[in-house]
Amino acid sequence: MMPGRIATLTVNPAVDLASQAASVKPGHKIRTFGERYDAGGGGINVAKVVCELGGKTLSLFASGGVTGRYVEEMLTTAKVPWQSVRIAGACRVSVTVRDQSKEQEYRFVPQGPELTAAECADILGTLEKVEADWVVASGSLPPGVPVDFYGQAARIVKARGMNFALDTSGAALTSALGQGISLLKPSLSELETIVGKEVRSLPAQMAEAKRLAEDGAAEMIALTLGAAGAILATKDSVLRLPAIAVSERTGVGAGDSFLAGLVFGLTERRTLNEALRLGLACGASAVQGIGTAQVRRAFVEALLASGPSPVATAARNDARLPSLHN
């Protein structure tokens, strides 16, 4: 059976500018080189990676100004299917500079344009017409967007019999819990915000992720732990895979790349273990290069072919996708 389509939702897209500098010092004119421009924003990053993996996708995003048109142009050039919802404000420009002397990365991320109530309604109205098996909403909410926007989106998607994945933070995250989320991808700091306490040991992290699924926050919890790997929990099972060791050059788009690989694996009906490993391989591929979510399918396949990863689990390692929609 052919995997289904993965649509993505990006309310706050960006033109991502990545460059390098010999050294970054305050009060000095910083000469940069190696500039690269990418279409960015959480859902857009997910769509790019799904497309690279050979999956069917549609990137739905709010687009305004010359920067919005540039995002559209870059996606067209990359042959990523897209649909935009017009807004009055110009899409933001995010800047990443890598300091070669310290091997550190500086990221400057604007809050984005302010959206009107009518523009927010247009985005949700367009979402009601999207045909897909999964809708992946990822990224921040710009000014003017109600804090429960992702909760509204989740309810729309669930009512239409599709699966909804969410990757966001702050109040936009907490207000969406329990609203029909199939897959939630928090970082450790976001998990601690949800549960209201520090969760620093691996057993505690696994237990809290499983508890969130049991309590109905989402049907699956994919907890990303950076160099410590990731945890994938349902109400019936929880497993953990270590990160894949690679040299890291950037962190931009790594989480979105992980989410893209995980959801793509789920649409292919892989086991949870296999889908999680695909997500980790995509994240490892993303941190290798310069730019946003620059995943390469050949590199991902090479990582997957390098042998099985050890697993820590409190349930069957061959557990499959829980009873989600479709």
Can you walk through the features of this model?
The protein has 326 residues and is an alpha/beta fold. The protein has 10 helices and 14 strands. The protein has helices at residues 42-52, 65-77, 117-127, 149-159, 170-174, 188-195, 202-214, 254-267, 272-286, 297-305, and strands at residues 6-10, 14-21, 32-40, 57-63, 82-86, 92-99, 104-108, 134-138, 163-167, 183-184, 220-224, 230-233, 238-241, 312-313. It is globular, with a radius of gyration of 19 Å.
Task: Map the helices and strands.
Layout: E1 6-10, E2 14-21, E3 32-40, H1 42-52, E4 57-63, H2 65-77, E5 82-86, E6 92-99, E7 104-108, H3 117-127, E8 134-138, H4 149-159, E9 163-167, H5 170-174, E10 183-184, H6 188-195, H7 202-214, E11 220-224, E12 230-233, E13 238-241, H8 254-267, H9 272-286, H10 297-305, E14 312-313
Parallel strand pairs: 1-4, 1-8, 2-6, 4-5, 8-9, 9-10, 10-11
Antiparallel strand pairs: 2-3, 6-7, 11-12, 12-13, 13-14
Tell me briefly what this model is.
By secondary structure, the chain is an alpha/beta fold. It is 34% helix and 23% strand.
Share in helix = 25-40%
Structural category is: alpha/beta
The ordered string of helix (H) and strand (E) elements is EEEHEHEEEHEHEHEHHEEEHHHE
Q: Label the overall shape.
A: globular
Number of strands: 14
Kindly list the characteristics that best describe this protein.
326 residues; alpha/beta; 10-stranded mixed sheet
